[in-house]
């Protein structure tokens, strides 16, 4: 026998204080429920509610790594374009100019690598303390 899907056709009206509402809303925002009504129904019916737990130091780490990844990708693209240009050069003067430009990209790359190492060390220190 298949069970019939029942429509929710009963309304419950409830008044809350601002403090009570904020408490419920905070619980909802930390849960995986998409709608406030789903969260309240789960709490009232004592169904399990999955909540998110956040680690701020990890969030900071991920944000920093995403930014660095974007910057490193741009540097890598510049490097690839430089190498393609080098293969097309025929004059010594053009090659010297390319070498000077490449040196700037190389210095930029090394600075970003130092920044990555610094960020990783900072996050590692935070995690080891916790």
Q: Can you offer a commentary on this structure?
A:
The chain has 130 residues and is mostly helical. It has 4 helices and no strands. The chain has helices spanning 18-29, 36-44, 56-88, 92-129. The protein starts with 17 loop residues before the first helix and ends with a helix. The model has no long low-confidence stretch (mean pLDDT 80).
Q: What order do the helices and strands come in, and which of them pair?
A:
Layout: H1 18-29, H2 36-44, H3 56-88, H4 92-129
Helical content (DSSP H or I, runs of 4+): over 70%
What's the order of the H and E elements?
HHHH
How does the overall form come out from the CA principal axes?
elongated
Uncertain segments are none
Determine the N-to-C terminus distance. 54 Å
Percent strand equals under 5%
Tally the helices: what do you get? 4
Rounded to the nearest angstrom, the radius of gyration is 28 Å
Keywords:
130 residues, mainly alpha, elongated
Summarize the structure.
By secondary structure, the protein is an all-alpha fold. The chain is 71% helix and 0% strand. The chain has four helices and no strands.
């Amino acid at each position: 026998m298949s069970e019939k899907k029942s429509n929710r056709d009963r309304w419950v009206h409830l008044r809350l204080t601002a403090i009570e509402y904020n408490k419920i809303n905070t619980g909802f925002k930390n849960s995986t429920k998409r709608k406030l009504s789903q969260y309240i129904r789960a709490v009232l019916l004592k169904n399990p509610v999955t909540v998110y737990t956040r680690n701020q130091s990890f969030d900071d780490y991920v944000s920093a790594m995403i930014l660095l990844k974007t910057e490193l990708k741009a540097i890598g693209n510049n490097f690839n374009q430089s190498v393609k240009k080098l293969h097309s050069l025929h004059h010594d003067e053009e090659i010297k100019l390319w070498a000077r430009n490449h040196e700037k990209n190389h210095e930029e790359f090394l600075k970003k690598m130092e920044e990555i190492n610094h960020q990783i060390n900072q996050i590692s220190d935070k995690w080891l303390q916790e």
